[in-house]
Amino acid sequence: MLPAREGIVAAMLNPRLEELSDYAFQRLATLLAPLEPPADLEPIDLSIGSPLHPPPQLLLDTLAEHGHLWNRYPPIAGTPALREAAADWLVRRYGLPAGTIDPTRHVLAVAGTKEALFLIAQAIMPDAKAGAKPAILLPNPLYNVYLGAAVMAGAEPVLLTASASTGHLPDLDGLSPALLARTVAFYLCSPSNPQGAAAGLDSLRRALELARQHDFLLIADECYAELYSSEAPAGALQAAMRLGQSLDHLVVCHSLSKRSSAAGLRSGFVAGDPAVMAGFARLRAGLNALAENSAP
Fold first, then answer.
1. H or E stretch including 189?
2. Which domain holds residue 87?
3. Which end of the chain is more exposed for a tag (fewer CB within 10 A), N or C?
4. How confident is the model at residue 296 (pLDDT cuts 50, 70, 90)?
């Protein structure tokens, strides 16, 4: 009976799983497995990109101070205090007009931005756009969750080369009108990984203009925004202010993982288009209700 059981289980699996690429760090681990570093050298761990610096003392003190609350489930959207802190930080960091970010409409707490980067695509994906299969634009090289989000949402992932010839950032100006018409989202990582290139304000504004012109969502992954040596990188919210202070067609993603060496905490937030935030919150609430209803 076991082979039949295996066949039934295999038939139940989503066929889109076959379209996913292998996790890059698993491939790297396989390549490195036969190698032994010299005994007199301390190896540099390139396996997963974990931060090597200790978290700031403020973070450690705050966690300890609130340790008695770990036995409680947080609100799905995040506590009001956390959402307000995120909104206030965005205003300070990017020099936004006071009141630009409404913590109740524009901000959601997330369990690390990987969750948001994946689930937002599921929340916004239509069955078709412009009478064709929806497309999601991705930088190449990319964070693998962008590809996974596109594939599992049923979209066509379109890889845009981000090499030295394009300033290590995707070039949107050469895309055909037909492709842009069926585009649902564009993932932009700035500062980028692994290249380290940061999009300037003009580039961010151009990306947001295209998003509004062709009705797709600009998902700005800004988890590396606080890693810089001189001038602070521009943010997509600044581009939105230059285009009239609306957050339409824009979501920005921020995380404590890299900036605060707190990858294991799984803490971040997203901010942007209130309609998208409402849809994302609805999806998360539905998933939470499903989990509660199925619990024994």
1. strand 183-189
2. 71-294
3. C
4. very low
